[in-house]
């Protein structure tokens, strides 16, 4: 099951724990079985081993895995019921606890109750050792820094003789040194293996260079990776079309529970060979991608924080049992899930740093069989990525922290971003890029496990084509803006050299942050509307608010709206004009509504879905590109849903939302 290196590592690890008093630092590649490095020693000694893990969901999966292996394991966290807590505490207080592993979060480790538990175990010589899982979270140089991890070293004061184990798969040399420092590891034994996994094939596909639908390209890749039948006569295809309704898009509201529940008994009987993950940045993208895959004949479900716990569990269980082969998820999905037959991991949008990508893509191929890791990359994605990283830097600079720590965090963010861009935009072995980043000694090319080593000339040609269009250098790291040809002026208010709107929030978790901001924005809009109505009632003699559709000169819906700060009316009008021109070229005037009305409503839809000028301009760019692509492919862009709206129907959704808010 495990290779020779890991068995050798474990032997040394056991000796150091049984005969000596040595802290241990372990860095093994993704899927190499790091958990075994502390689970096995925990079985060899009487007492309790305490494991610190960053997420409750991750802890839940680890506890279930341990119990299936016969390890007596429990967790204490905010979701542990009172009855469960009572049983666990009774066992811990006994003279000979049956508990072998206790999982807790770093946040709970700082509480007085947890400290009392640990002190009691230590005084009775029943506290074996502390394990810090995902140890890169303790360092500013890590890609997922969590401040609560820094408090773990305080536990040395209550249990000074307990040995520590730090485990990670994604620590650069700087991160490794900082982990040792922050956890105050005492002359630790260091075990580190190469990051190279020969069974994983890495490649990067440039969205801008694909002639047809990018989603169709993804679907074809999925079919090949899973040997998925394309013929409609196959049972898998028929079960998708008849018993698995299309997952919801962001613009419709079907019952998602029914979508998952209606995977038929026939589908359960025809399990798929292998599975895959498509990582998306936002919840809407997850739903759109799942919908497109289903339309392409591939059964897929979305997975994100906007779904309730039961529904997420149902989706995950169906994916784990191969009833549903593909899941379109945000990056939170997959932590702690040990599924051996993941044949592919697709990133629909590029991660923010190389360490995160290594960890996320490493969820593929844990059974040792050939598996595929792919990024779909574009100039638009890179621009958005640059914006998010810039937001991170602004947030870091605003922290009340030591200046040196702030500088380290900024440097780490810059380095991770720069190496991620280099991974996508520079020719070279993909595995060597990982090896250099993580400080491996072996820098030999993989020869056949990435697109560059397999066909370097073809890879260089694609990169040359990707860079051949006009690009402008901006920012500290030479980031670039895409050239939009004759339509570029409508994207940036002051032309192509305009600065990106910096915004105000950071991006610890881009998906959750964007959703929280959208929720706050909606609340602010509702409150503003209530305020307006109160003023209107007090000034009954004042003229009524002009209709959103009355300003024919402006040509946009609700020209007086103030939802997006710093967005001028002239910019909105320019966006609407660009949409109008694209629709006119598409020749879709034969639909139920006019091109003029459709362009207004499409612009307004983009406006309502955006929270700042950067996102507004980015979404507008995508919409125009989508219309032009339909034109290029000889397809009519459907505007039938954009029918003429009265003032009442326009505000109908808003009124419903405000009513719900009052309830």
From TrEMBL:
Signal peptide location in the record?
1-20
Q: Which residues form the Helicase ATP-binding domain?
A: 15-189
Q: Which Pfam families match?
A: DEAD, Helicase_C, RecQ_Zn_bind
Report the domain of life of the source organism: Eukaryota
This protein is called what?
A: DNA 3'-5' helicase
Where is the segment annotated Disordered? 498-519, 532-555
**Catalysed reactions, as listed in the record:** Couples ATP hydrolysis with the unwinding of duplex DNA by translocating in the 3'-5' direction
Which UniProt keywords are given for this protein, alphabetically ordered? ATP-binding, Nucleotide-binding, Signal
Q: Which organism is it from?
A: Gnathostoma spinigerum
Q: Which InterPro entries match?
A: DEAD/DEAH_box_helicase_dom, Helicase_ATP-bd, Helicase_C-like, P-loop_NTPase, RecQ_Zn-bd
- Looking at the keywords, is Zinc-finger present? no
UniProt xrefs under Gene3D superfamilies? 6.10.250.3140, P-loop containing nucleotide triphosphate hydrolases
Q: PROSITE patterns, alphabetically?
A: HELICASE_ATP_BIND_1, HELICASE_CTER
Q: Where is the Helicase C-terminal domain?
A: 255-409
Q: What is its EC number?
A: 5.6.2.4
Family (UniProt): Belongs to the helicase family. RecQ subfamily.
Which sequence ranges form a coiled-coil region, renumbered to this chain? none
Record field: compositional bias (Basic and acidic residues): 510-519
The molecular function terms in GO held by this entry are:
3'-5' DNA helicase activity; ATP binding
């Amino acid at each position: 099951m495990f290779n020779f290196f890991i068995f050798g590592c474990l032997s040394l690890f056991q000796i150091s724990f049984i005969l000596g008093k040595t802290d241990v630092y372990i860095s093994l590649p993704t899927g190499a079985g790091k958990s075994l490095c502390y689970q096995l020693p925990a079985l060899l000694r009487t007492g309790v081993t305490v494991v610190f893990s960053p997420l409750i969901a991750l802890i839940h999966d680890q506890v279930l895995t341990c119990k299936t292996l016969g390890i007596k394991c429990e967790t204490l966290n905010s979701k542990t019921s009172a009855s469960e807590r009572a049983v666990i505490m009774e066992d811990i207080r006994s003279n000979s606890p049956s508990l072998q592993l206790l999982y807790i979060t770093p946040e709970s480790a700082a509480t007085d109750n947890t400290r009392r538990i640990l002190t009691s175990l230590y005084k009775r010589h029943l506290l074996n050792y502390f394990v810090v899982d995902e140890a890169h979270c303790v360092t500013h140089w890590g890609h997922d820094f969590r401040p609560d991890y820094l408090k773990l070293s305080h536990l040395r004061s209550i249990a000074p003789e307990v040995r520590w184990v730090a485990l990670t798969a994604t620590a650069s040399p700087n991160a490794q040194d900082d982990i040792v420092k922050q956890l105050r590891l005492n002359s630790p034994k260091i075990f580190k293996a190469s990051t190279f996994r020969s069974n994983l094939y890495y490649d990067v596909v440039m969205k801008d260079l694909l002639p047809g639908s990018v989603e169709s390209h993804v679907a074809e890749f999925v079919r090949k990776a899973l040997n998925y039948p394309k013929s409609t006569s196959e049972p898998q295809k028929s079960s998708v079309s008849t018993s698995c309704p299309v997952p919801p898009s962001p613009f419709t509201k079907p019952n998602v529970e029914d979508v998952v529940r209606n995977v038929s008994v026939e589908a359960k009987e025809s399990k798929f060979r292998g599975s895959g993950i498509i990582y998306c940045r936002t919840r809407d993208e997850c739903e759109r991608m799942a919908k497109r895959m289903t339309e392409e004949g591939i059964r897929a479900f979305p997975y994100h924080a906007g779904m309730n716990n039961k529904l997420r569990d149902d989706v995950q269980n169906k994916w784990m049992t191969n009833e549903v082969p593909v899941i379109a998820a945000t990056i939170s999905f997959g932590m702690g899930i040990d599924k051996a037959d993941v044949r592919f991991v697709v990133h629909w949008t590029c991660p923010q740093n190389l360490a995160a990508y290594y960890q996320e893509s490493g969820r593929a191929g844990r059974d040792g069989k050939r598996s595929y890791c792919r990024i779909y990359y574009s100039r638009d994605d890179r621009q958005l990525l640059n914006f998010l990283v810039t937001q991170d830097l602004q947030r870091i600079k605003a922290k009340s922290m030591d200046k040196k720590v702030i500088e380290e965090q900024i440097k780490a963010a810059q380095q991770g971003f720069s190496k991620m861009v280099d991974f996508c935009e520079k020719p070279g072995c993909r595995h060597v890029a990982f090896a250099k980043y993580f400080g491996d000694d072996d820098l030999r090319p993989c020869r056949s496990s990435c697109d560059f080593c397999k066909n370097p000339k073809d890879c260089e040609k694609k990169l040359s084509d990707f860079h051949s269009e006009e690009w402008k250098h901006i920012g500290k790291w030479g980031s670039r803006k895409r050239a939009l040809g004759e339509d570029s002026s409508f994207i940036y208010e002051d032309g192509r050299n305009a600065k990106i709107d910096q915004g105000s929030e950071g991006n610890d978790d881009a998906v959750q942050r964007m959703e929280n901001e959208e929720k706050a924005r909606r609340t602010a809009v509702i409150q503003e509307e209530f305020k307006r109505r109160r003023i209107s009632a007090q000034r009954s003699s004042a003229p009524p608010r002009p209709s959103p559709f009355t300003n024919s000169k402006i040509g946009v819906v609700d020209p007086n709206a103030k939802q997006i700060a710093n967005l001028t009316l002239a910019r909105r009008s320019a966006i609407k004009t660009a949409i109008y021109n694209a629709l006119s070229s598409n020749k879709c005037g034969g639909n139920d509504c006019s091109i003029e009305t459709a362009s207004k409503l499409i612009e307004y839809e983009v406006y309502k879905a955006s929270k700042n000028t950067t996102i507004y301009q980015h979404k507008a760019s995508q919409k125009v590109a989508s219309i032009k692509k339909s034109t290029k492919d000889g397809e009519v862009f459907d505007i039938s849903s954009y029918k003429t709206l009265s003032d009442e129907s326009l505000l109908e959704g808003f009124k419903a939302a405000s009513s719900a808010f009052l309830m």
